[in-house]
């Protein structure tokens, strides 16, 4: 029996080949195990013999799940099971080591594990050996690719390592790594937007743990430098740069101030997609990444959280976030009025009518900065709306009159309707007969 034949030596293989030739009429059976790259290392292996090749597929997802459950039992939740199965990608040895690592690290009855946890040292040792056999040029390419994660583009790697890489150009190395089944081709969603299809081809590590092993080869300084270079390159690719990816790259690249801006954009996208929990997650990450960030960025992040909390019916949290946003915003600015507006509606839900009146007075008496007129009108209209529901006829009339006076004084109806958010502007323009409206209440 010969194990790991891909790491074999020529003299041994010749000896076995000679034995097979000389003892062809004898009951001699040779059982050899190897990875696919054995065909690259020994392309003419035993061609003159009657070799029967059996290609073993990896564990199916069902079998891998059963193995995880069989070892860890009911202590492990579905998220952890899916994580382990995905990272092992059908490799029984990797899955076994991952299971052992999780079981040893867990000190509680329920096993919870993050995807960012490190790969077991036993797995990394095996993969480091394999990467070493690929050559320095291939390792350099893979280490650069690992900075981007499991999926990367040729142009991204080129931005980090240049071209050519040793004797081969980058394209040749990537093609070679695909042939060696280290990488696979990947069709990313923005690839069709680029005319230079070949230059921007996307690739994916065939195995997530191979990416972990390549990343593990980088020094701490190399990682920081690489992530910053990757972030700057991704930032220049405005056609397909993902805000959250950019934020993470800037954090790991040691530039938290730039990361905050992209965490804010990620939170805005989450709000647009109604993923309210993600809004809080991204906003908190932005605040944590740079505690000394600019006041306006902090105001925007807290305002986004206030909006998300309000739509989650967490009115006390919404009021708290809005108050924090107001503290960090410049009075009279657009973000100040937006935050005040959220504080008003949240306070009304909490029956805190004193705050509603107080904030309305502040909003109506504060001069709006250039470009903040629409936000001020929105704030006053939302206050009026809450007053009406508070059955405060005289207050509602006063608020509504102030809103319409501001509307006539500041901008035309058409201009305001074109300003976001439109639904509140439309309400302001519509509610003109305030006396009649208040009389009904």
Structure at a glance:
The chain is mainly α and 441 residues long.
Would you kindly provide a written description of the structure presented here, covering whatever features stand out?
The protein has 441 residues and is mainly alpha-helical. The protein has 4 domains: 61-117; 124-232, Arc Repressor Mutant, subunit A, CATH 1.10.10; 242-329, Serine Threonine Protein Phosphatase 5, Tetratricopeptide repeat; 332-441. It has 23 helices and 3 strands. A 3-stranded antiparallel beta sheet has the order 1-3-2. α3 crosses α4. The N and C termini lie far apart (91 Å).
List the helices and strands and how they pair.
Elements: H1 10-22, H2 38-41, H3 61-72, H4 78-88, H5 92-105, H6 121-134, H7 136-146, E1 151-153, H8 154-161, H9 170-179, E2 183-186, E3 202-205, H10 208-216, H11 220-236, H12 243-252, H13 256-272, H14 276-289, H15 295-311, H16 315-328, H17 334-349, H18 353-365, H19 373-389, H20 393-410, H21 413-417, H22 422-430, H23 434-439
Antiparallel strand pairs: 1-3, 2-3
Helix pairs in contact: 3-4, 3-5, 4-5, 6-10, 7-8, 7-10, 11-12, 12-13, 13-14, 13-15, 14-15, 15-16, 15-17, 16-17, 17-18, 17-19, 18-19, 19-20, 19-22
Descriptive labels:
single chain; 441 residues; mainly alpha; Arc Repressor Mutant, subunit A; Serine Threonine Protein Phosphatase 5, Tetratricopeptide repeat; three-stranded antiparallel β-sheet; 23 helices; 3 strands; disordered C terminus
């Amino acid at each position: 029996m010969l194990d790991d034949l891909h790491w074999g030596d020529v003299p041994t293989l010749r000896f076995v080949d000679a034995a097979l030739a000389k003892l062809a009429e004898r009951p001699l059976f040779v059982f050899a195990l190897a990875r696919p790259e054995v065909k690259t290392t020994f392309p003419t292996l035993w061609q003159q013999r009657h070799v029967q090749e059996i290609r073993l597929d990896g564990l199916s997802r069902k079998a891998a799940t059963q193995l995880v459950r069989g070892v860890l039992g009911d202590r492990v939740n579905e998220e952890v099971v899916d994580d382990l199965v995905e990272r092992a990608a059908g490799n029984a040895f990797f899955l076994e080591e991952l299971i052992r690592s999780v079981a040893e690290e867990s000190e509680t009855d329920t096993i919870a594990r993050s995807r960012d946890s490190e790969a077991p040292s036993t797995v990394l040792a095996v993969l480091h050996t394999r990467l070493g056999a690929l050559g320095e040029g291939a390792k350099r390419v893979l280490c650069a690719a690992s900075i981007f994660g499991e999926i990367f583009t040729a142009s991204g790697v080129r931005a980090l390592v240049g071209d050519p890489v040793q004797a081969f150009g980058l394209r040749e190395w990537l093609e070679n790594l695909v042939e060696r089944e280290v990488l696979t081709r990947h069709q990313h969603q923005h690839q069709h937007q680029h005319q230079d299809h070949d230059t921007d081809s996307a690739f994916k590590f065939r195995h997530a743990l191979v990416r972990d092993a390549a990343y593990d080869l980088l020094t701490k300084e190399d990682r920081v430098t690489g992530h910053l270079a990757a972030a700057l390159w991704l930032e220049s690719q405005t056609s397909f740069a993902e805000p959250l990816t950019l934020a993470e790259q800037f954090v790991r690249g040691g530039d938290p101030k730039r990361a905050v801006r992209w965490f804010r954009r990620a939170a805005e996208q989450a709000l647009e997609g109604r993923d309210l929990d993600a809004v809080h997650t991204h906003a908190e990450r932005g605040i944590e990444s740079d505690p000394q960030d600019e006041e306006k960025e902090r105001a925007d992040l807290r305002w986004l959280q206030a909006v998300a909390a309000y739509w989650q019916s967490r009115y006390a949290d919404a009021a708290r976030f809005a108050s924090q946003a107001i503290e960090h915003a410049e009075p009279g600015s657009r973000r100040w009025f937006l935050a005040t507006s959220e504080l008003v509606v949240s306070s009304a839900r909490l029956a805190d009518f004193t705050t509603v009146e107080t904030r309305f007075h502040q909003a109506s008496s504060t001069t709006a900065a250039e470009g903040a007129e629409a936000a001020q009108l929105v704030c006053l209209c939302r206050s009026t709306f809450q007053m009406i529901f508070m059955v405060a006829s005289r207050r509602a009339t006063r608020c509504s009159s102030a809103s319409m006076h501001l509307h006539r004084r500041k901008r035309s109806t058409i201009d305001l309707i074109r300003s976001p958010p439109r639904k509140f502007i439309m309400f302001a323009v519509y509610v003109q007969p305030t006396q009649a409206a208040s009389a009904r209440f």
